[in-house]
Design brief:
The chain is mostly beta strands and 208 residues long. It is built from 4 helices and 15 strands. The strands form 3 sheets. Strands 2, 3, 4, 5, 6, 7, 8, 9, 10, 14 and 15 form an 11-stranded antiparallel β-sheet that branches. The N and C termini lie far apart (65 Å).
Length: 208
């Protein structure tokens, strides 16, 4: 019983299946970039943490590099065994490091995972989450931002049910594309698939 009382949380994902270090390129706000591949690795950042990287990551002579979040524009990364599947993390003001889930000309959808991210050997990307003994889980949420906007729109949790209120909230944000709103409202998919529909968003329904 004493041992159980010391257990504060339970990990949902198998960390052996998803790596928290990856190959990739860090793009800085000053227009420069730095690449980590081969024997080098980027530690996928979480929260608002700085970006930690290693030269010769698995060697006793590894060299640690640290970059401030404020200096980074984005990180494009991949699992060494699946370089064709590239993912992107960006620092979002007032939120933290977010996975770019939808990257369309007129809108972006982000996923923020408080406990971080993992990438698998088959190229799959996943959020890392924990469930506490109380039943409460760590934060994994969607955010939206239209092109040209400074602030993000909080959409809600990723793993909750995709009910009418969730779809209505999306449509409140993309009300200037009534055609897409109609498709979203008629969708019966889970939240992740519903949000992926935003790849077809056109500001002011300019696709007509």
């Amino acid at each position: 019983m004493k041992l159980l009382s010391l257990i504060a949380l339970f990990v949902i994902l198998s960390f052996s299946s998803y790596a928290s270090m990856a190959e990739g390129v860090i793009y800085f706000k000053d227009g420069t970039s730095v690449r980590y591949d081969g024997k080098d690795r980027i530690v996928l950042p979480k929260g608002s943490s700085s970006v930690k990287c290693y030269r010769h990551a698995y060697s006793s002579s590894k060299e640690k590099m640290v970059y401030t979040t404020a200096s980074v524009d984005s990180i494009v990364f991949w699992h060494p065994a699946a370089a064709e599947y590239k993912r992107t993390l960006v620092p979002v003001r007032s939120v933290g490091w977010c996975w770019v889930y939808v990257d369309a000309p007129c809108i972006r959808a982000y996923i923020f995972s408080k406990k971080g991210y993992g990438v698998s050997a088959n190229g799959g990307m996943s959020t890392l989450s924990v469930v506490y003994p109380s039943g409460r889980s760590s934060r994994v949420a969607f955010y939206l931002r239209k092109s040209g906007d400074d602030d993000v729109f909080p959409l809600g949790g990723v793993y909750k049910r995709s009910g009418d209120s969730f779809r209505d909230r999306i449509c409140d944000y993309i009300a200037d594309d009534p055609e897409l709103c109609d498709k979203v409202r008629r969708s019966s998919s889970v939240r992740s698939k519903t949000v992926s529909m935003l790849a077809g968003y056109r500001s002011g329904n300019s696709n007509k």
